[in-house]
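Action item from last meeting closed. Structure (169 res):
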């Protein structure tokens, strides 16, 4: 069974669940309650929530493109491990960054985990490396310049996690 379509399906279901609940981001988005109330599940659950249909759609298209490519090379198990654990690590790095600055933001989305995939591919694919580095910088900073509220730091942390990820053969 392919992991990428399963991740996409679970994420879409998570988004619809999110629309039905009033306090979804309090409990399942990654926020200060991770530290203050011991909501240990948030780095994982926040990957399956999104800030809107456009956010969900863009992330799932990019996940399908790069996830399918990397899953074909690594196999479903290794790819799933990279995506989930890399996404959790990225979420923790992001919330520690925000918390250390005294910011009370709520993080939702798969962008960090997707950036792990892109960073991993960039590290191992010298031919496409420069283009992927430019792409991560563009998707991180152009929306900011347009006044959009995005977690640019999650993109950069994720790319770094993917870049330094080691997979045993």
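Sequence:
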């Amino acid at each position: 069974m392919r992991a990428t379509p399963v991740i996409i399906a679970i994420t879409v279901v998570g988004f619809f669940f999110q629309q039905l609940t009033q306090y979804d981001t309090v409990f399942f988005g990654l926020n200060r309650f991770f530290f203050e109330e011991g909501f240990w599940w948030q780095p994982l659950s926040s990957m399956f929530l999104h800030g809107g249909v456009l956010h969900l759609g863009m992330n799932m298209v990019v996940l399908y493109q790069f996830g399918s490519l990397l899953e074909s090379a690594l196999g479903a198990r290794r790819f799933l491990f990279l995506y989930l654990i890399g996404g959790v690590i990225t979420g923790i790095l992001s919330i520690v960054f925000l918390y250390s600055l005294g910011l009370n933001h709520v993080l939702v989305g798969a962008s960090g985990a997707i950036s792990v995939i892109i960073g991993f591919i960039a590290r191992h694919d010298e031919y496409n490396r420069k283009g992927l580095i430019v792409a991560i910088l563009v998707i991180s900073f152009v929306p900011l310049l347009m006044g959009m509220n995005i977690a640019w730091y999650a993109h950069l942390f994720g790319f770094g996690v993917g870049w330094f990820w080691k997979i045993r053969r």
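Note appended to the action item: The chain has a mean pLDDT of 95.
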